Write the structure tokens for this entry.
Amino acid sequence: MLVIGAGLAGSEAAWQIAQAGVPVRLVEMRPIKHSPAHYSSECAELVCSNSFGALSSDRAAGLLKEELRRLGSIVIRTADSHAVPAGGALAVNRASFSASLTKELSAHPRITIERQEQEHLPDEGQITVLATGPLTSELLADNLRTFTGRSECHFFDAASPIIEGESIDLTLAFRASRYDKGDADYMNCPMDKGQYLAFREALLNAEQAELKEFDKESAKFFEGCLPIEELARRGEDTMRYGPLKPIGLWDPRWGDLNDRDVRRSKRAYAVVQLRKEDHEGRLWNLVGFQTNLKWSEQKRVLKMIPGLHQAEFVRFGVMHRNTFLEAPQLLEPTLQFSKRSNLLAAGQITGTEGYTAAVAGGWLAGNNAARLAMGLNTITLPSTTMIGALTHFVSDSDCFRGRKGEFQPMPANFGLLPELAERIHAKRARYGAYRDRALNMLEEAQQQWGTSKVPI
């Protein structure tokens, strides 16, 4: 049994296969060969944000995580164990998270980690999970193009900068979560109108790093993770209605929030938020500040943010190409390739977006690979679950033909789920009903599958 790629999806797939009692080789090219975005050789390194999204199960990302907890996901269990304060989100200490997961995978008696580049797909006789992610090496990507007979899909993605907490000026920045929900886990840097407009102008005029693989005219971005300079180009107020929205954030030093005159005169025009990278707050990442600016320009422009004029950068933002398959034309809901049932795909290469969605694909592909090895029927998850909805989306060719434009990556969202039997108008109550139905259907599906797991 072979799993190619030790990212989030590949790590989850390898663990599920091994837990089912099947020996598995987990092949990872790092550190022999690094991608444009990775910094370490650890399994499941988080290259962009350190957040897995909302915690609450009446949010789409939160429901996806809850389903995975109930299914025994090692990645989500490890993320829960290495969580750092982040308000209503599950954010992790990315270094200890990846190190812990690497240690656990390495210690498993049925997992062998091999450090080498996989340059081509294996022969048909070998059951394989392809989990190379959006940063698939060029040699393997070429082989995939030949195998599928389709030109690759791609878009550009970017990571946010990280700074040292001690370099933040706390006379200007303040701690708070939006609407005071949970603890004050975010650092907030308020801007007045003049500061905001000057900052936007600097972003518009800053020099960008060269996109080597594609010319800028043809570059496509994932709409859910746009570079901050691209947001600035889309309009004067776009950032203020996105990552810099000031609503729900108040510094007590400004005065009494309940005083209408104080609220009108002191309210920030825009707010830049930073989220902890580690539990102690030594490192912070700029939320929503994915960027392709040159490093020297990042240092210059981002220091214009109030409170960050002395910022010490641990990591600058980088942009990289994300590769994904035209999955609806190639995959079954089991994540098997239609033309080769022994080959499965998992993670962001299938066209799901986000860390937790990648884990979900790894769970399903890993379990189905193990079932193939044991001569059992493969499984799908009900489309009323978030995992099932995502996997059905990326494997539904009829749905793809009915949409306008090209197939694009999709994050977890309630719009993927079938409508409820009865319309519920209140949003929170409706999302709660989606959750309850999903978890009930997941439990029924688990009972129907039975168990094929073998304890270590």
About this structure: The CA atoms of residues 203 and 229 lie 6 Å apart.
